[in-house]
Amino acid sequence: MAIDGKKTKRKTVPLTVNDINKAKPVDKPYAMFDGGGLYLEVNPNGSKIWRMLARLNDRQIKMSFGKYPVVSLQDARKKRLEAQVQIAKGINPNEAKKAVKEAEKAKTEHTFEKIARSWHQNTLPEWKQVTAHDIIRRLERDVFPVIGKVPIADITHQQIIDVLKTVEGRGVAETAKRLKSNIERIFSHAIQRGIIKHNLVGDLKDVLAKANKGHFAVIKYAELPAFLKALDDVKADLQTKIAFRLAMLLFMRSSELLGAEWSEVDLDKGVWVIPWSRMKMGKRKINPDKSDHVIQLPLQAKSLLKDLEPLTGWGNFLFPKRGNPREAMTGEALLRVIKRMGYTGKMTVHGFRALASSWLREQRLEVNGKKVPRFSHDAIERLLSHKERDKTVGAYSHMAEYEEERKEMLQAWADHIDAIRRQNLLNLDE
Predict the structure, then answer these.
(1) Do 267 and 197 sit in the same domain of this protein?
(2) 351 and 219 in contact (C-beta within 8 Å)?
(3) Where residue 370 falls among pLDDT bands split at 50, 70, 90?
(4) Would you tell me the crossing angle of helices 112-123 and 173-192 to the nearest 10 degrees?
(5) At residue 379, does pLDDT exceed 90?
(6) Which domain holds residue 137?
């Protein structure tokens, strides 16, 4: 009987396994009907394939259920029933089958890592090179090893929570926060590509501990001698200790310190010029401050940099990452030092800015019998590279403004730190 989809007046007798096994190939394909549109196609090469003919929306559709005997007679009849149910609901079984295959394919092709790298590549034009590099390294270090190979559609809330809490548990809450934002954007990218329909990360409002907004952990001034002693005693490599001491002496933001390049430092002149593009205010998308930040190095900072030069001066970064000198050291290295000192949650690198600025504001000179501030408010603000508060303060945005006063402040603070350390040594001798 030809396979032309035409109805036959003859009553169809259901097939038996014996009928199927006895069927022999001929020079043309022929069909053995089982009823309800199901038939076995016997081909000249001896293959036997289950097929089904049906009508949907006045159009004939042809389905394939697989080869016999891999698909048995009983299995073929089950598939026929499933197809009939779908057709009764107005569903094309072929399209439904294709959708399932595409979904399964997506599970293997659309892993979290593949989607993340696609998002990263698409977003590169938005970022500076160092930002793009930090983001992909953060994902490679903390996320890909855990959920990188998992299809993004199968990732659960708990898996994301576990990743974020692991990072937060290292004492780097800000890194965990940034990572959460990155993962949320990756899920959004998957939605835009039609791979998933819901962004799980948007549900995780309170998964990370809330930081005390606007405040970084900082010790009291009275605790500074004990802190300096702990720093002197802590076990850490020389490069990391120098980074820590420079952060303390120059009260720079950790990103501005650790991302520094040797080309920014002139030891002969005792000047460190941080390009505006690396400064916090220079990274603003709206009205960035494009003035470079000039640091007049105190003697102690110059000495530290001279000690550092034989260690890293051959490369690009002042503080390259161990094992990969093409990358800068991360802030986690300094946080580990703080942890070893026993000051986790009590002090941060950023805390030096608060300590130093408070001390500078409290310094007084006696003029005509009156105590007056030794250093001006505007000079301290400029030294901290804070954004301008108003137009009257805006005049100090020029890089040379308050240069001598800023130099005096840094030297005074460095001398003060040295005095405390000397007193610590005297106390030990007593």
Answers:
(1) no
(2) yes
(3) confident
(4) 90
(5) no
(6) 112-203
- How many Cβ atoms sit within 10 Å of the Cβ of residue 137? 14
240's tokens? 């990391």
The confidence band for 4, taking pLDDT boundaries of 50, 70 and 90, is: low
CB-side neighbour CA atoms (13 Å) of 160: 26
Chain centroid to Cα 100, Å, comes to: 32
Concatenating the DSSP letter of every residue in 161-193 gives: HHHHHHHHTTT-HHHHHHHHHHHHHHHHHHHHT
- DSSP-based three-state secondary structure for 361: helix
Query: What does the pLDDT look like over 155-200, one tens digit per residue?
Result: 999 899 999 988 888 777 888 889 999 999 999 999 999 888 889 8
Q: Which amino acid is at 42?
A: V
Residue 392: pLDDT band (50, 70, 90) is: very low
Beta-carbon contacts of 115 under 8 Å, excluding residues fewer than 6 positions away, are 152, 186, 189, 190, 193, 195
Q: Over the chain, what is the mean pLDDT?
A: 86
Predicted confidence band at 215 (pLDDT cuts at 50, 70, 90)?
Answer: low
Helix, strand, coil percent content, the chain, rounded in steps of 5: 55, 15, 35
- Of these ranges, 78-87, 126-135, 273-282, 327-336, the one predicted with the greatest mean pLDDT is 78-87
Report the C-alpha gap between 59 and 46 in whole angstroms: 30
* Interatomic CA distance for residues 97 and 95, integer angstroms: 5
Q: Which of 203, 230, 245 is the last residue of a domain?
A: 203
| Chain centroid, CA 415 distance in Å | 40
Q: Is the overall model pTM greater than 0.85, yes or no?
A: no
Q: Which two tokens stand for residue 258?
A: 């650790």
CATH of the domain at 75: 3.30.160.390
Domain end position, chosen among 203, 235, 260 = 203
Q: Are 107 and 153 in contact (CB under 8 A)?
A: yes
